[in-house]
Structures are given as structure tokens and as C-alpha cells.
């Protein structure tokens, strides 16, 4: 029996988990949740996940887990045939964890602060403060990629799935200029060749359909 993943396809965190699952060849039972209808706040969903966040995983033994970073680490640790996506080497894993925390606490948090007022509160533009916040994230990522092909080294890890989903979403609202961020732009081009990238592309199209009409 496949693990169940509750999703909304446009969500960057959802897309990161889908990329991880596709990369390791793991089939998931995908259950779509409509945020605009507040299906994530029903009594049954709140009983399962009191933070009412997506994605939420229910494994085949009933184990429930939320937060995309935790879900990816769990799925790869349990179902992958090697540790390459979440290395067992303590220093390499520590760097992957640092990048995951950066995505959670800085990159995705910034993206949410920019887009939540637009999607749910009717805001119609990205102001200069939002642009500056996004550009700061881009500058950090540009530095992270110094001397590296991928976000935590020369091999793809679960941290890349988080960064790819977040950064491709950022790019919809605040364009990533290749002349200013060449390493970041090159990174996203390489990402398009990854076996699991299609899982990001499909959800990104849904994300663009939601966000683009809100931009001036």
C-alpha cells in the first residue's frame, strides 16, 4: 500500500516532496486538498494535522508527518536504495540540514510573506520591500553555489528539491536576472534536467496560473 500524501499541486513544499518521491521511484497516493475551500481545516484534517499544513504524509502503517523537509528526509531514509539524497556522512548531512533550515526559515518564509497577501488578501503588486527581500535570498543562494554544482555540494540532495521549488516560485514574482545571479540562473537550468523535475514543472504551472493575474 502506497503512502498517502495530502497536497495542493501549486504549493512549493508539496512540489519538493513530489520531486523527491519521483527521484527515488516511490509511488504515492495523492489526495488533493482545496485550500480556498478550507478543506485543510475540517475536523478530520485537523485531527490528523493540527497545523493544517500541506503536504501531510500518512505512511502505510498510519504514521503521520508534516513539513516537507521532514517528509523528504523520512521518505528517502525509509524508501531510497542509497543515501545519496540525504547522506549519512555527518558533515555532509549537517550541510544539507543547514540548507533545509535556510529554505524553511528564510527562503520559503520570505516567499510566503510576499505572496500570501496577494493570494489571500487581494494585494495586487510586489512592492520594493518585497523585491529587496527576494533579492537578498538570491544573493545568499548565489554565495551557497560558489564552487558547487548543487546547493549542498556536487551531488543532488533533498535540499535541492526545496530550493528548486522555492526559487522557481520566487522567479514568478521577482525575476531572477542571469546577469546579476549567474550561478543561481545556471543552477535552475541544470535543475530542469533532473529526473524528478517534471513533478515541479506541473505544479509550477498551477502556481503561475494563480499568481500571474495578481501581478501588475
Write the topology of this structure.
Layout: E1 4-7, H1 12-24, E2 29-32, H2 43-48, E3 56-58, E4 64-66, H3 68-79, H4 90-121, H5 128-144, H6 158-173, H7 182-191, H8 197-211
Parallel strand pairs: 1-2
Antiparallel strand pairs: 1-3, 3-4
Task: Give an overview of the whole structure.
The structure is a single chain. It contains eight helices and four strands. With 216 residues, the chain is of the alpha+beta class. Strands 2-1-3-4 form a four-stranded mixed sheet, with helices on one face. It is globular and about 50 Å long. The N and C termini lie far apart (46 Å). The mean pLDDT is 96. Homodimer. Residues 1-83 form the GST N-terminal domain. Residues 89-214 form the GST C-terminal domain. One of its GO terms (molecular function) is glutathione transferase activity.
Keywords:
four-stranded mixed β-sheet, 56% helix, 216 residues, GST_C, glutathione transferase activity, Glutathione-S-Trfase_C_sf, Glutathione_S-Trfase, 4 strands, 6% strand, alpha+beta
Poorly predicted runs: none
Mean pLDDT: 96
Describe the largest sheet: 4 strands, mixed
Shape: globular
Distance between the termini: 46 Å
Please state how the strands of the largest beta sheet are arranged side by side.
2-1-3-4
Q: How much helix, percentage-wise, in residues?
A: 55-70%
Order of helices and strands: EHEHEEHHHHHH
Q: Structural class of the helices, strands and pairings?
A: alpha+beta
Q: How many strands? A: 4
The rounded Rg comes to 17 Å
Question: Number of helix segments?
Answer: 8
- Strand portion: 5-15%
Amino acid at each position: 500500500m502506497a503512502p498517502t500524501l495530502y497536497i495542493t499541486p501549486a504549493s512549493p513544499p508539496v512540489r519538493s516532496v513530489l520531486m523527491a518521491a519521483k527521484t527515488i521511484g516511490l509511488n504515492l497516493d495523492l489526495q488533493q486538498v482545496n485550500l480556498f475551500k478550507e478543506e485543510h481545516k475540517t475536523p478530520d484534517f485537523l485531527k490528523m494535522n493540527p497545523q493544517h499544513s500541506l503536504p501531510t504524509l500518512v505512511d502505510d502503517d498510519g504514521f503521520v508527518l508534516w513539513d516537507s523537509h521532514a517528509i523528504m528526509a523520512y521518505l528517502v531514509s525509509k524508501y531510497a536504495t542509497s543515501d545519496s539524497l540525504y547522506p549519512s556522512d555527518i558533515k555532509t548531512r549537517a550541510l544539507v540540514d543547514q540548507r533545509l533550515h535556510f529554505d524553511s526559515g528564510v527562503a520559503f518564509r520570505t516567499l510566503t510573506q510576499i505572496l500570501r497577501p496577494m493570494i489571500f488578501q487581494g494585494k495586487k503588486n510586489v512592492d520594493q520591500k518585497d523585491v529587496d527581500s527576494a533579492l537578498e535570498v538570491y544573493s545568499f543562494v548565489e554565495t551557497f553555489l560558489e564552487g558547487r554544482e548543487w546547493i549542498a555540494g556536487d551531488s543532488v540532495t533533498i535540499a535541492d528539491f526545496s530550493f528548486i521549488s522555492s526559487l522557481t516560485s520566487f522567479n514568478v514574482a521577482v525575476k531572477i536576472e542571469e546577469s546579476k545571479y549567474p550561478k543561481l540562473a545556471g543552477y535552475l537550468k541544470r535543475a530542469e534536467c533532473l529526473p524528478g523535475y517534471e513533478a515541479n514543472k506541473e505544479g509550477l504551472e498551477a502556481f503561475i496560473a494563480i499568481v500571474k493575474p495578481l501581478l501588475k
